[in-house]
C-alpha cells in the first residue's frame, strides 16, 4: 500500500488537480481547446525539462539553461534585425546553445568544477552576453520576420479526429519531438545506459570502462542545445526577444525533474516522469490563472506542491 | 548486563525468509562469534539489532526484561554499539571530531567549541585502544583505512564513557587492518569483554574467531545450525555447519601447467605510486602481489588497468600499445575487480543486470548505438549463473545483496567476455567462506583455460593457495618475484619483511 502510494502518489496528485479544476471550472478547463492551449503553454518548459533530465541522470545540474534560452532568443532576433534569413538566425542560436553547453561540460568534466558552481557562473555569463548582444533592449515588431513568429501560431489541423477548426500547435509538436528523442537517447541507447551508470557511481563507472569525461561533456552540450531550442520557441511565440525572457525556466525545469523523480523506484530521473512533472506545473498554472488566483499566491502554491511531493516521497522511502 | 536474549527472530523480504526463528543468547563478559555464508542472514540480523530494519517477529530480553526495538534510537538506548565493516568516517573533519561525532562537543562559555578538551577526550579514547600514532587534531582523510577503522572504534569507546554500553557488535572489523593493528584491536575487544560487556563478533577469518571468541553461533539460510562454546567445537565443524559440506581442499589445486606464451610484460615501469616494476605474465599464470599494508600492491594493478601512467619503462601487451585508460583496457579484454567494491565497483542503486553488463554495452549494441536489452539480460543470466550468484532476480538492486553476492556481481561483470587478463584487487575482501570457495574455483577455472591473473591479497594463505608466483612490494618498489610452490605463510611473511 505504502509502496503504491510512493510510486503513484505523484500521479494520483496530478489526477486530483485535474479533477479539481474540472469541477471548479466547468465548461472551460477540461475542454479540447484549453488542453491544446496548455500543451502550447508548457512546451518551452517541457523542452528545457526534458533536456535537463539528461544531466540530472548523472546527478549533475545545469543552472544556466534559463539565461541560455534568453541568449539564444536574442542571438536569433539580432541576426534577423540585421537582415539575415530565418535559417541563419535559428542555426546560429542553436550553435550558441550547443557551444554554451560544451563550455559548461568542459568546466564540469575536464576542469572538474562542481556543476552547481560552474553553471551558476555561466548563468551570469550567458545572461550578461544576452544583454550585450541585444544592447539591453527588446527586439520586436518588424525586426522579427513573420515566417519566424508565424511558426508558433501554426499547427496541424485536428479536423481528422473530429476537433474541427482546432490545431495541434507546432510548438507542442516540437516538445513531443524532443520528448521522443530524449526518451530514445536515455532509454534505448548505450549512451543513455552509460549516463545512468555515471549517475549510479561515477568512480565505479570509470573503472568499468565508461568514458565519464566525454559523456558528461556531451550531456551538458545536449542540455545547452535544448535550452536554445526553448529560447527560440519562446521568441517565436511572443514575436520578440529580450535578454531576460528565459529566466523563469531553470527553476521550473529542475522542479519538474524532481517531481518526476518521486515516481521512480530508486529515485532516478526518467524523462517520461519529467513529463508528468511538467504537466503538473503547467496544469496548475493554467487552472489557477483561470480561477484568477493572484500570481504571488500561485507561486507559493506551486512551490508548496513541489516541496510536499518530494517530502512525501522521501518520507515513504525512509519508512519502507 | 548479564544476559541479552534474542529469540523467535524472523524476517522476510518480499515473501522470501531471510531469518526464520533465529535465537541468540549473548552474555556479559563473553565474545560471541556470529558466522555464516553470504546470504545466511548475518547482515539482516545486525541491521535489526541496530534498529535499521524491523523484524517480523522478535522477542528481545535484557536480564529478563523485554526491550523495545523499532528504531536506531531504541538500539542506542539499549546500549548497543556497532562497528561496521564499511567505514562511516567524515574525511573532512579531524580524527577527534569523528570520534565525538553525534555527541555534544565540549564547549567554553556554552558557545565556542573547546578544541583542547575535544582533542584530549579523543586522545584518551585512542590511548584506551593502545593507539598512540594518531594525532586527534589531524584531518581524518589523512589517515589510511586501518587508522580510520581505529578512529571509528574509538568513537564507540568515547560514547561508553558517558553511558556504559552493554553490547558491542563488530562487523568484520579486521577486513582492512594489518596484522599489527588487528592485534591491538583484539586486545581492546578483550578489554571490553573483561569490563563486563557482551561482544558480538562477525568475521570470516576462522583463526581470529577460534582465538578470540568464547562462543559461536552459525547461521545457514536464515536458521540456527550451530551454537556452541568455541572450546567444544572445531574449525572443521564450523565450516561444515556454514557450508553444509565438509571441508575439502579450500584452494582448488592447479591441474595443468602454466602456458609458455607471455601475455603481458612490464619492464622497469615506474609511475607516481610505484617504481621498478618488472614482471612477465604467462598464459594461465596467477601472479600474486604481496606486501605490507599500502606497499603499492594496488599501484601495480593500476598500471595494467591503464589507471596510472608509466613515466618510465616499457609494457608489452599484444601488438598494440598498452591501454592508457580503463575504457581501453576493458576493450582489450582486461577485466578488473577493484579493491573497494561499494565505492569503486558497483552502482548500488542499480539492478544486478545493469551492473554486470556495463563494460560490454558496446559489444552487445545493435545498429551502432542501440542498447540491446535482451542481449544484456542473456549475458547477465549466463554470467550470474557462472558465478553462482544468489539474487532475487536480475532486476534486484545491488545494495540489497550480501557482500559476497555483491562481489560475485563484479565477477559476473568480468566474465561478460572471455577475459584476456583478470586483474583482482583483494578479490575476497569482506566475503564469506562459501562465496570464497566459489570465487577460488572460478579463478582457478579461468586460469586453467589460459587466462592470466594478477591479484593482490592481504591473506597470505590465499596468496600461496592460489598463486604460482608472488611479486613482493615494499614502500612502493618491487623487491622480488618468488615461486610460491612449497612456501608456507610464515616463509612468505619473512620474505615480505626481509626483502
CATH class category label of the largest domain in chain B: Alpha Beta
- Rg from alpha-carbon coordinates of chain A: 20 Å
Largest interface: A-B, 23 and 30 residues
With strands numbered from the N-terminus, the spatial order across the biggest sheet of chain B is 6-9-10-3-11-12
Structural class of chain B: alpha/beta
Radius of gyration of chain B: 24 Å
The tally of domains of chain B stands at 2
* Share of helix of chain A, binned: over 70%
* Class derived from helix and strand content of chain A: mainly alpha
Q: Which percent band covers the strand fraction of chain A? A: under 5%
Give average pLDDT of chain B, whole number.
86
Largest sheet of chain B: 6 strands, mixed
Describe, in plain words, how this protein is organized in 3D.
- Chain B: Keywords: ATP-binding, Cell membrane, Membrane, Nucleotide-binding, Repeat, Sugar transport, Translocase, Transport.
- Chain B: Pfam families: ABC_tran (PF00005).
- The complex is a heterodimer of chains A (320) and B (499).
- With 320 residues, chain A is mostly helical.
- Chain A has a single domain, classed as ABC transporter involved in vitamin B12 uptake, BtuC, CATH 1.10.3470.
- Chain A is built from 14 helices and four strands.
- Chain A has helices spanning 2-24, 32-41, 43-56, 65-81, 86-111, 115-134, 146-153, 170-188, 190-200, 202-207, 212-238, 249-261, 271-290, 295-318; strands spanning 139-140, 155-157, 167-169, 240-241.
- A two-stranded antiparallel ribbon of chain A has the order 1-4.
- In chain A, helix 9 crosses helix 11 (212-238).
- The longest helix of chain A has 27 residues, at 212-238.
- The N and C termini of chain A lie close together (11 Å).
- The mean pLDDT of chain A is 91.
- Chain B is an alpha/beta fold.
- Chain B has two domains: 3-243, 3-Layer(aba) Sandwich (Rossmann fold), CATH 3.40.50.300; 262-498, P-loop containing nucleotide triphosphate hydrolases (Rossmann fold).
- Helices cover 34% and strands 24% of the residues of chain B.
- Chain B contains 18 helices and 21 strands.
- Chain B has a six-stranded mixed sheet with strand order 6-9-10-3-11-12, with helices on both faces. A six-stranded mixed sheet of chain B has the order 17-18-19-15-20-21, with helices on both faces. A four-stranded antiparallel sheet of chain B has the order 2-1-4-5, with no helix packed on it.
- In chain B, strand 9, helix 6 and strand 10 (198-202) form a beta-alpha-beta unit.
- In chain B, helix 4 (115-128) crosses helix 5, helix 14 (373-386) packs across helix 15 and helix 15 runs parallel beside helix 16.
- The longest helix of chain B has 18 residues, at 145-162.
- The mean pLDDT of chain B is 86.
- Classes of the chains: A mainly alpha (320), B alpha/beta (499).
- Chains A and B meet through helix 9 and helix 10 of A and helix 10, helix 11 and helix 13 of B.
Amino acid at each position: 500500500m505504502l509502496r503504491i502510494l510512493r510510486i503513484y502518489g505523484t500521479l494520483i496528485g496530478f489526477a486530483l488537480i485535474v479533477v479539481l479544476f474540472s469541477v471548479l471550472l466547468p465548461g472551460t478547463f477540461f475542454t479540447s481547446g484549453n488542453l491544446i492551449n496548455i500543451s502550447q503553454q508548457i512546451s518551452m518548459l517541457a523542452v528545457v525539462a526534458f533536456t535537463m533530465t539528461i544531466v540530472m541522470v548523472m546527478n549533475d545540474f545545469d543552472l544556466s539553461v534559463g539565461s541560455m534560452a534568453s541568449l539564444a532568443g536574442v542571438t536569433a532576433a539580432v541576426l534577423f534585425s540585421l537582415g539575415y534569413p530565418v535559417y541563419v538566425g535559428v542555426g546560429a542560436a542553436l550553435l550558441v546553445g550547443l557551444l554554451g553547453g560544451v563550455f559548461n561540460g568542459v568546466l564540469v568534466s575536464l576542469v572538474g568544477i562542481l556543476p552547481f558552481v560552474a553553471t551558476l557562473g555561466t548563468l551570469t555569463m550567458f545572461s550578461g552576453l544576452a544583454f550585450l548582444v541585444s544592447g539591453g533592449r527588446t527586439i520586436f515588431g518588424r525586426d522579427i520576420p513573420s515566417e519566424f513568429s508565424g511558426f508558433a501560431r501554426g499547427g496541424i489541423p485536428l479536423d481528422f479526429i473530429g476537433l474541427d477548426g482546432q490545431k495541434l500547435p507546432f510548438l507542442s509538436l516540437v516538445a513531443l519531438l524532443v520528448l521522443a528523442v530524449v526518451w530514445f537517447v536515455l532509454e534505448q541507447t548505450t549512451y543513455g545506459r552509460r549516463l545512468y551508470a555515471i549517475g549510479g557511481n561515477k568512480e565505479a563507472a570509470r573503472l568499468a570502462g565508461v568514458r565519464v569525461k566525454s559523456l558528461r561533456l556531451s550531456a551538458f552540450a545536449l542540455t545547452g542545445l535544448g535550452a536554445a531550442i526553448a529560447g527560440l520557441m519562446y521568441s517565436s511565440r511572443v514575436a520578440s526577444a529580450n535578454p531576460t525572457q528565459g529566466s523563469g525556466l531553470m527553476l521550473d525545469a529542475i522542479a519538474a525533474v524532481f517531481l518526476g523523480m518521486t515516481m521512480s523506484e530508486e529515485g532516478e530521473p526518467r524523462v517520461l516522469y519529467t513529463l508528468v512533472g511538467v504537466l503538473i506545473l503547467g496544469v496548475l498554472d493554467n487552472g489557477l490563472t483561470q480561477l484568477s488566483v493572484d500570481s504571488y499566491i500561485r507561486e507559493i502554491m506551486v512551490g508548496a506542491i513541489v516541496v510536499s511531493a518530494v517530502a512525501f516521497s522521501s518520507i515513504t522511502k525512509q519508512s519502507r | 548486563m548479564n544476559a541479552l536474549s534474542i529469540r523467535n527472530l524472523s524476517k522476510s523480504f518480499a515473501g522470501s525468509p531471510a531469518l526464520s526463528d533465529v535465537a541468540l543468547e549473548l552474555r556479559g563478559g563473553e565474545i560471541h562469534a556470529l558466522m555464516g555464508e553470504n546470504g545466511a542472514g548475518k547482515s539482516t540480523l545486525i541491521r535489526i539489532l541496530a534498529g535499521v530494519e524491523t523484524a517480523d517477529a522478535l522477542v528481545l530480553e535484557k536480564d529478563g526484561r523485554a526491550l523495545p526495538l523499532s528504531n536506531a534510537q531504541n538500539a542506542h538506548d539499549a546500549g548497543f554499539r556497532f562497528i561496521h565493516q564499511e567505514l562511516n568516517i567524515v574525511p573532512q573533519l579531524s580524527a577527534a571530531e569523528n570520534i565525538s561525532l553525534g555527541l555534544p562537543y565540549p564547549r567554553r562559555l556554552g558557545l565556542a567549541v573547546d578544541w583542547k578538551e575535544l582533542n584530549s577526550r579523543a586522545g584518551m579514547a585512542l590511548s584506551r585502544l593502545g593507539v598512540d600514532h594518531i594525532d586527534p587534531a589531524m584531518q581524518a582523510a589523512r589517515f589510511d583505512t586501518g587508522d580510520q577503522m581505529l578512529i571509528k572504534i574509538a568513537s564507540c569507546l568515547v560514547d561508553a564513557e558517558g553511558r556504559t554500553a552493554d553490547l558491542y557488535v563488530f562487523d568484520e572489523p579486521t577486513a582492512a587492518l594489518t596484522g599489527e593493528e588487528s592485534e591491538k584491536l583484539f586486545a581492546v575487544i578483550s578489554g571490553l569483554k573483561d569490563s563486563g560487556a557482551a561482544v558480538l563478533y562477525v568475521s570470516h577469518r576462522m583463526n581470529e574467531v577460534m582465538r578470540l571468541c568464547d562462543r559461536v553461533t552459525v547461521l545457514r539460510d536464515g536458521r540456527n545450525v550451530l551454537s556452541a562454546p568455541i572450546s567444544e567445537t572445531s574449525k572443521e565443524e564450523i565450516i561444515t555447519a556454514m557450508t553444509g559440506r565438509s571441508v575439502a581442499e579450500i584452494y582448488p589445486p592447479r591441474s595443468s601447467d602454466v602456458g609458455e606464451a607471455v601475455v603481458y610484460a612490464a619492464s622497469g615501469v615506474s609511475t607516481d605510486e610505484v617504481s621498478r616494476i618488472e614482471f612477465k605474465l604467462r598464459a594461465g599464470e596467477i601472479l600474486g602481489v604481496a606486501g605490507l599494508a599500502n606497499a603499492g600492491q594496488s599501484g601495480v594493478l593500476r598500471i595494467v588497468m591503464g589507471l596510472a601512467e608509466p613515466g618510465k619503462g616499457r609494457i608489452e601487451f599484444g601488438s598494440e600499445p598498452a591501454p592508457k585508460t580503463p575504457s581501453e583496457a576493458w576493450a582489450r579484454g582486461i577485466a578488473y575487480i577493484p579493491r573497494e567494491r561499494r565505492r569503486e565497483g558497483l552502482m548500488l542503486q542499480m539492478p544486478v543486470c545493469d551492473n554486470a553488463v556495463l563494460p560490454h554495452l558496446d559489444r552487445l549494441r545493435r545498429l551502432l548505438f542501440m542498447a540491446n536489452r535482451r542481449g544484456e539480460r542473456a549475458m547477465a543470466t549466463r554470467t550470474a549463473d557462472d558465478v553462482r550468484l544468489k539474487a532475487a532476480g536480475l532486476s534486484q538492486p545491488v545494495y540489497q545483496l550480501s557482500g559476497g553476492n555483491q562481489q560475485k556481481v563484479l565477477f559476473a561483470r568480468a566474465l561478460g567476455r572471455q577475459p584476456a587478463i583478470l586483474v583482482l584487487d583483494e578479490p575476497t575482501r569482506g566475503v564469506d567462506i562459501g562465496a570464497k570457495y566459489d570465487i577460488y574455483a572460478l579463478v582457478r577455472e579461468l586460469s586453467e583455460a589460459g587466462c592470466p591473473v594478477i591479484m593482490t591479497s592481504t591473506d597470505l594463505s590465499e596468496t600461496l593457495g592460489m598463486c604460482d608466483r608472488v611479486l613482493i612490494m615494499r614502500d612502493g618498489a618491487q623487491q622480488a618475484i618468488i615461486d610460491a610452490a612449497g612456501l608456507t605463510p610464515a616463509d612468505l611473511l619473512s620474505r615480505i619483511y626481509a626483502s
